[in-house]
Amino acid sequence: MFKGKVLLFSLVLVFATSLYAGDVDECESNAGTSCALRVSICPAGDFEYIRNGCMGDADYIWVQIEDALGAGIAGIPWTDYWMNACLPAQELCLCASPIAADSLTNELGQTTFSGRIAGGGCVLTGGLYVACQGKVLLEQPECVANICIDMVVVSPDINATCKVDLSDLSFFGESYNKNLGDPDFNPCCDYNDDSKCDLSDFSFLGEHYLHECF
């Protein structure tokens, strides 16, 4: 009888370990940015790099992915991540593989993102959440609220349809030749972050016109 209990306990322990050790734990994991990022994106994934998001060339989003035991998970693939707006009203339209990590996670579960994002829409406030292998990373200690990284996103796909088309041009026209503080100025149309919606921004929209997810 005693041996049977020991065997049962061993099986439960093995099952629990296999379930949690090495699996992404959304509360133990963490994410952040090197600075307050501002990035212009396009559904074709051919606009601004994250590494240029603070007017430099070495900026990034970072993640540290851990299991329930607090151990880093190494070797997570580049493509096992998702990001979107923390505020549902600003949800981005993202392509099937919107973002890729710069490398596999290292032995501490760490990697960065400094490339481009394939998608559209506009996020001015609230930041972005990060998900790894389908699990949205949560703030400690309560582990009920999403970690919202400090990031603003704009796109020539202003209305988040995953395509830059005539409807976006119409939205842009309403803000054209307006400056920050003007009643009709839309910061979602300011792609170069100079507090104006002018010819330079129209040029960016023209470069990405009819771009869509592929």
Total count of strands: 12
Q: What name does the CATH topology of one domain carry? A: Immunoglobulin-like
End-to-end gap:
62 Å
Order of helices and strands: HEEEEEEEEEEHEEH
Q: Please outline the major beta sheet.
A: 3 strands, antiparallel
CATH architecture of one domain: Sandwich
Strand coverage percent? 15-25%
| CATH domain class of one domain | Mainly Beta
Q: Flag low-confidence runs.
A: 1-20
Helix amount, in percent?
10-25%
Please state the oligomeric state of the protein chains shown.
single chain
Mean pLDDT metric = 91
Tell me the strand order in the biggest sheet. Answer: 1-3-6
Return the structural class.
Answer: alpha+beta
Q: How would you characterize this protein structure?
A:
By secondary structure, the chain is α+β, with helices and mostly antiparallel strands. It has a domain at 23-158: Immunoglobulin-like (Sandwich). Helices cover 18% and strands 19% of the residues. It has three helices and twelve strands. The protein has helices at residues 2-20, 166-175, 199-207; strands at 30-33, 37-40, 61-64, 81-85, 93-94, 110-113, 119-120, 128-132, 135-136, 151-154, 178-179, 196-197. It has a three-stranded antiparallel beta sheet with strand order 1-3-6, with no helix packed on it. Strand 8 (128-132) and strand 9 form a beta hairpin. The longest helix has 19 residues, at 2-20. The radius of gyration is 21 Å and the shape is elongated.
